[in-house]
Amino acid sequence: MNYEFKAQSKRLMELMIHSIYTNKEIFLRELISNASDATDKMYYESLTNPDLTFSKEDYVIELIPNKEERTLTIQDHGIGMNKEDLMENLGTIAQSGSLEFKKKLQEDQEDSSELIGQFGVGFYSAFLVADKVDVYTRRFDENQGYHWQSQGVEGFSIEEKDKEESGTTICLHLKANEEDENYDQFLDQYKLKEMVERYSNYIRYPIQMEMTKSRLVEKENQDPDAAPEYENYQEVDTLNSMVPIWKKAKKDLSEEDYINFYHEEGFGFDEPLAHIHMNVEGVVNYRGILYIPSMEPFNWRSKDFKKGLKLYSNGVLIMDKCEQLLPDAFSFVTGVIDSEDLNLNISREILQEDRELRIISKNIEKKIKEKLLDLLKNKREDYITFYKAFGTTFKTAIYESFGGEKEKYGDLLVFVSSKEKEYVTLDEYLERMEEDQDRIYYATGDSLASIDQLPQKEGMDKKNLEVLYLLDPLDEFVLKVMQDYKGKAFSSINTEKKEDLEHTEEEKGLFKEMKEILDGEVVEVKTSEDLGDHPLCLLSRGEISIEMEKVLQLQGQDLEAEKVLEINKNHPIYQKLLSLKDDKENLKKYTKLLYNQGRLIEGLTVKNPTEYTKTLFDLLADKDNKTK
């Protein structure tokens, strides 16, 4: 007998086939999931029906491709359906023998994003690849079987049909190949095997298919020089592994098991530094395994990199990269999460921004942070290896939040210390500060050696003040937005310090004249008594430091730091400058030479190398200009 789909069902089917599903491969995932649901129902029926026995190995899901007929059959031995079930489950789209839509569809709905329900509509994804679908089924407790058939939105028919075994057999008659669509691929045994492993590998029942294989023909008295001869044979293979590692007890797994899973899933070629095995029962139930890698993935620094965890629902792959589960700061984490409590849309492809997802994400973030702190405390070498590869993610999170995330990630930052030239945390720095020290001192530079040679660094050493070395161009930007850590302000030794040194009128006149000679290159010339044996240093004033200037100009931003030229009051060069108050020409030469020396010490280029070189040669050639 022929039937028509309801108007809303027609519209939904068209929407599903043409709009909702973006990947045709998922039809197999949906049909296998339905077969698994039907088998689950048989299992639960056996729990209360003494006449039924249930053995998991007997309840296989079979795939039968037929290249000659161009059909693909999916067969289960589950609970089966009678006519009423067929009318309810397959006659009205958005119904399911297991689950119903949470909200009834409204006749005037136009936005597919509002068609949110559960898995019941997955059967109709068959029409993504088939132009005709036959369903043969018999309910386990009835003798009569049925044949349901449909060629799409126009309707369906149901007829009585004898069926020897209970369960459901779905036969897809594949569409004709098109210029940009090859439907024959869904008849290839290796393609089907790959699709099962990708989407349905952890379905709890065996998914089996007869595979064509090849083997060497062994013959008696075979000529050793003859070419080897092979023959084809058929063998039924189980395509899925059924029990995922994350559902196994931790005590039953070895470190090797976790590493093997990491490699099998393609999370990386390295050996992960750590894993987190979760089994959470509460408001939201979920399981999973997360990995902290030791090396950057090949595309880590490219635009192609995409963060996210593999997301499963009851063993069925929903998303390869679920970005919502990871904050950007932990984008390096890989792994899987499996939960039956997520609110999925009808295509199982896009997740709603629902409460359950946010709860899982928040808990994951907490677990990752705990694991990183554990590495930092108990496996410092491993943490430093990790930090060199991925520490930028914490810094970026803090910087892009204008310091708002410093409480969350500040304790994960590490810097090389001037004390032992080893990485230390900010907490460790605070613990060993001098009694009267109220600031966290840092220095910026290209290398440890270049920072150690800074004039102002010598002054810090004499005062026994620990200095953090900032070698990453991003470091200073991060500390600038953080401003402080647990109440202690950050202070750069590359920045001008407020010193109340008294100057004579003669000295004030000298500084004013030197500033005019430099013509806007510096905002002030002054003296210092904190430079050790060094004659001078070039410091910054204001929010932009000299190191930040270098980074910004590399990015094409024409911003410069306000610079202060400090002359060591205890160095002979200072007395030489005072002696030149009436020798304007040589004062000009010395002033420009000293300023350019300061630029070179700070890693800046000399703006006019020709003038600088000429000035240097002039002073070297003039014996009367030797410093006394």
Commentary on this structure:
By secondary structure, the chain is α+β, with helices and mostly antiparallel strands. The protein folds into four domains: 2-213 and 233-238, Heat Shock Protein 90; 245-378, Ribosomal Protein S5, domain 2 (2-Layer Sandwich); 402-492, Rossmann fold, CATH 3.40.50; 505-625, Heat shock protein 90, C-terminal domain (Four Helix Bundle (Hemerythrin (Met), subunit A), Up-down Bundle). The strands form four sheets. The chain has a nine-stranded mixed β-sheet with strand order 1-6-5-4-7-3-2-8-9, with helices on one face. The chain has a six-stranded mixed β-sheet with strand order 16-15-18-17-20-19. It has a five-stranded mixed β-sheet with strand order 10-11-14-12-13, covered by helices on one side. The relative contact order is 0.06. The model is unreliable at 94-120 (pLDDT under 50).
The general outline is: elongated
Distance, first to last CA: 115 Å
CATH class of the largest domain: Alpha Beta
Tell me the Rg in angstroms: 37 Å
Task: Assign the CATH topology of the largest domain.
Answer: Heat Shock Protein 90
Low-confidence stretches: 94-120
Report strand %: 15-25%
Which strand order spans the largest sheet, edge to edge or round the barrel? 1-6-5-4-7-3-2-8-9
Class by SSE composition = alpha+beta
CATH architecture of the largest domain: 2-Layer Sandwich
Helix count, DSSP H or I runs of 4 or more residues: 18
Domain module count: 4
Helix content: 25-40%
- The count of β-strands is 23
Characterize the largest beta sheet: strand count, sense, and whether it forms a barrel.
9 strands, mixed
Overall pLDDT metric: 86
CATH superfamily of the largest domain: Histidine kinase-like ATPase, C-terminal domain
